[in-house]
Amino acid sequence: MRPPGIRKLTAGVVERSLEFGTLYATYLHDFGVPGECDAQFRGLLSRLLRRGWIGGFYMASRTEWLGFCIYSRTYSPVARSPAYSLDDMFVSPSHRRQGVPSRLVLGLVELARKQEAKRIYVNTDAGDGVLMRFYERNGFVDADANILMLEVT
Question: Which residues contact 37 (CB under 8 A, 6 or more apart)?
């Protein structure tokens, strides 16, 4: 069961939600993607969700989106089991440091348990101390250069 407030991100939500569009445009801007690429990236995200190549969760209030995460399913040869990769996570600047990212990660942990996956991986910048501490607080450990891993129990 997903944590309270966590919703499944679907292609329909990506295509129709103006609030998601606003949050996604902020995400792209923060990573230096030109604004004119917004519709193109939303279209790609929608197609990948529709085809089941990726999945996602989001949190929203009645008036605005708080954050989202995108994941993909993979396989861990070491654990000999399914695994997940946390590919992207973004939280609205006005909602950071309020537990939103931890709840999104918890949503993925619950999904991994349900699907009998043993690990969740995240590729991150080892030089970003704030981000590294966030993942460590949420149970991730170093697995390789710039890759953190969470054992799902």
Answer: 28
Quick check: 148 pLDDT over 90?
no
Distances (CA, A) of 78 to 82, 83, 151, 152: 10, 10, 12, 14
Distance of CA 128 to the CA centre of its chain: 18
Q: Tell me which residue has tokens 């230096």.
A: 32
What CA–CA distance (Å, rounded) separates 105 from 85? 11
The pLDDT tens digits for 39-69 are: 777 888 899 999 999 999 999 887 778 899 9
Helix (H) or strand (E) holding 141: strand 141-144
Single pTM value for the model: 0.86
Q: Which position has the token pair 């969700």?
A: 49
For residue 96, give every residue at least 6 positions away whose Cβ sits within 8 Å of its Cβ, in sequence order, or none. Answer: none
Instruction: Classify 118 as helix, strand or coil.
Output: coil
Among 90-99, 103-112, 123-132, 136-145, which range has the highest average pLDDT?
103-112
Residue 9 token pair? 């991100």
**HSE (CB half, 13 Å, CA atoms) of 134?**
21
